Amino acid sequence: MSSTKKRRDVEVYENYWKFTAAHLDITGTKFNNCLNVIIRFIDKNKETLEKNAQNSSSFSDSELYKVLQQ
């Protein structure tokens, strides 16, 4: 079984934890803003997401995923 993830040579966790901690306070503004962005993206792309779920085994292979990453 091969892994599709590649480990970075250098990983900086300080930035990751800073981001994560800010978004784990579910009563805070940053979390709610982040959740709002996600909900709007899903609502805007609902049909495409549903089609992808029926036709593809991996969302990360879709064009919509590429758009989301930008």
Low-confidence region ranges: none
The secondary-structure class comes to mainly alpha
Q: What's the SSE pattern?
A: HHHH
What's the mean pLDDT score? 78
Q: State the end-to-end CA separation.
A: 30 Å
Rg of Cα set: 16 Å
Tally of helical runs:
4
**Share of residues in strands:** under 5%
Helix content class? 55-70%
In terms of quaternary structure, what is this?
A: single chain
Specify the overall morphology: flat
| Beta-strand segment tally | 0
Query: Main sheet?
Result: none
Architecture overview:
The chain is mainly alpha-helical and 70 residues long. The chain has helices spanning 13-24, 29-44, 46-55, 63-69. The protein has 4 helices and no strands. The two termini are 30 Å apart. The protein is 64% helix and 0% strand.
Quick structural overview:
The chain has 70 residues and is mostly helical.
